[in-house]
Amino acid sequence: MSRSAHPAGPRHADVLPEGHYSAPATDLNELDPKVWSRTVARDADGALTVGGIEVARLAEEFGTPAYFIDESDFRARCRAWSDAFGADADVFYAGKAFLSRAVVRWLREEGLNLDVCSGGELATALDAGMPAENIAFHGNNKTVAEIERAVDAGVGRIVLDSFQEIVRVSHIAQRRGVRQRVQIRVTVGVEAHTHEFIATAHEDQKFGIALADGQAAEAVRRALTLDGLELIGIHSHIGSQIFDMAGFEVSARRVVQLLAEIRDEHGVELPEIDLGGGLGIAYTSEDDPSEPHEIAKALSDIVTRECESAGLRTPRISVEPGRAIVGPTAFTLYEVGTIKPLEGLRTYVSVDGGMSDNIRTALYDAEYSVALVSRTSEAEPMLVRVVGKHCESGDIVVKDAFLPSDLAPGDLIAVPATGAYCRSMASNYNHALRPPVVAVRDGQARVIVRRETEDDLLRLDVG
Ligand code: LLP
Description:
Blueprint: E1 41-42, E2 48-50, E3 53-54, H1 55-62, E4 66-70, H2 71-85, E5 89-94, H3 101-109, E6 113-116, H4 119-127, E7 135-137, H5 144-153, E8 157-160, H6 163-176, E9 180-187, E10 190-192, E11 197-199, E12 209-210, H7 215-225, E13 229-235, H8 246-266, E14 272-274, H9 292-310, E15 316-319, H10 323-326, E16 330-342, E17 346-351, H11 360-364, E18 371-372, E19 381-387, E20 396-404, E21 412-416, E22 437-441, E23 444-449, H12 454-460
Helix pairs in contact: 2-9, 5-6, 7-8, 8-9
């Protein structure tokens, strides 16, 4: 999903496709600040530190594999997003990227709102004290029980995703004698990819209601007439790990066009638009993500311009970054186990985790970086594939990378930029125990999600 080129390798250049792999451009001991969280550094002995704590100490105390999240970096990114969008906009952190009670508290303290998309995420948010009015509830198939819970809690908005859901939420709210604030999620006909976006006439996906064939306008008609609903705006989310702002611009333009049509037909100017999440991060040095202030400026310029030309008041904008906030703030620490050089091919480096703690490589062909972090090394680079310990050959953590050729069992290696969609998509495949998430800040480390135990597994198995 990232647009990184394949890295390169001198060792086996004779058998690898020519031009495909070339020598790594940088010193393997260097840590590219684009892919590592902000407090990561190497100490005088060459060991990686985060929040001032050395990885060997972290490994000893918390074990491996484990995710280490750089709390001050997470908070700084929250502030960068809310400062960039300012008082006239709302930033909703997308909890699906990674959610825990500590994260909810950080979000509250940094003034962010929260997007949840399941009963479980809603429960976590409410339990950790996120005010319900700061919660947006998403999902293409919310159950009746989930909708009831969200309405009862008083969530700030439910994002309606289908005609049936418009009726469902209306009934549930009416039965309770409340008016639920809602947005309608539309599909704007922009299919966003990492490299490009393709305008499509018809939508072929499960989310949202299509703009193109008038369905979205019909959904608005129904939402405006049904009791129990207060339609506050239109929502659009075009995809994930996107670098090109053009897709967001088309999306913003089409959403504003719909607002103008709504004004013309119903005499109502909806006060809000939500442009979703999806902004890309750097997984490797090849990736060049935009900064929040650039994104905020691009989006607000286009919305302001389009509203001016349509004679509309500029609506309040909201955005829902998940990956762009949490992704770069964490790395996964592994211990190297078996090392298997395949002559003329590459060296397979097995670690003590794998697809159960990072499914993204197998699922999306995602690219990651990796570094030896327990020490530095001046040894020649070797082309490696970092693989897990699962019974599956697709169990790959980092497909193509370079590590020093003196790598040995017991070394610690780390994969950066694993804050988003790694722990949240982790599984128990092969009865793996899902790793802990440890928050590190100012020389202190504390577990915010503990490691699973065999007892946890056996407790679920009721025999
Ligand atoms: N808002 C909505 C309505 C979404 O569906 C999503 C992500 C977001 C916001 C946050 O997107 P972000 O800023 O994190 O890209 N598992 C995939 C990503 C799935 C994203 C689903 N929706 C991955 O690992 O790349």
